[in-house]
Amino acid sequence: MNYEAIIFDIDGTLIDYDYSQYQALDKLLDMIPWNNSERPVTKEVFEYWYKEKNEFYNRPDSDNINIYEQQKIILENLLANWKIIVDSTQLTKSLFDIYETTWRVYPDVLECLFNINKIKLCVISNGDSKFQRLKLTKTGLDRYFSEILISGDINIKKPNPKIYTTMSDNINISLDKCVYIGDRLDFDAIGSSEAGMLGVWLNRKNTPGNKIPKNVKTITSLQQLTSLVI
């Protein structure tokens, strides 16, 4: 099969967003007035934040709340857990300012993009359009992609097949000529595969025990992508 478009997820695939959140929270903790309380270790706060984030994203109304308010709500829950009374609006603004200084690209990304740059390169990502595009701009990745589609642009999220067919229509390349790669087996690899693309699961942590459909490919590094699609 000669593929004509390679389409990437952003967080966990191109950009190490867990690292960004960890570093941003670490810096934010130093800005919080802990009063008589001892500053908690960053790892503990990060685990709590991650739990709150997942619970928030499972709320039926989460799609109707912008990224700033989402982060503000999660931060307020975190502050309440540690019984801290402070201006959450200012802290949330500071958090977003810090985010922009902590985004980083995985080490295997640039070499991969260079090796496959003769094929059309695109992005599909869930999230707030402005926030996701800013990540690509700040890390310099935006220059590599001819088409970027964020769920916030069309109010359709992965794994809904319509987001994959929308990309196919936008670039005028049939689904079976497209490869989609992401770090989520369910949302990314299986979702794109069921839509008609070649779904590739980027299992960076080499997580065992997942039941992988036969039509889904698995790699543990983007260094392995070239031999899979070219």
Feature tags:
6-stranded parallel β-sheet, Rossmann fold, 230 residues, 6 strands, alpha/beta, 2 domains, elongated
Short description:
The protein has 230 residues and is of the alpha/beta class.
How is this fold's topology laid out?
Elements: E1 5-8, H1 17-29, H2 42-57, H3 67-81, H4 88-102, H5 109-115, E2 120-125, H6 129-139, E3 147-150, H7 151-154, H8 161-171, E4 178-182, H9 185-195, E5 198-202, E6 216-219, H10 225-229
Parallel strand pairs: 1-2, 1-4, 2-3, 4-5, 5-6
Structure notes:
- It is a single chain.
- The chain has 230 residues and is α/β, with parallel strands linked by helices.
- Helices cover 47% and strands 12% of the residues.
- The chain contains ten helices and six strands.
- Strands 3-2-1-4-5-6 form a six-stranded parallel beta sheet, with helices on both faces.
- Helix 9 links the parallel strand 4 and strand 5.
- The longest helix is centred in the N-terminal third of the chain and has 16 residues, at 42-57.
- The model has no long low-confidence stretch (mean pLDDT 94).
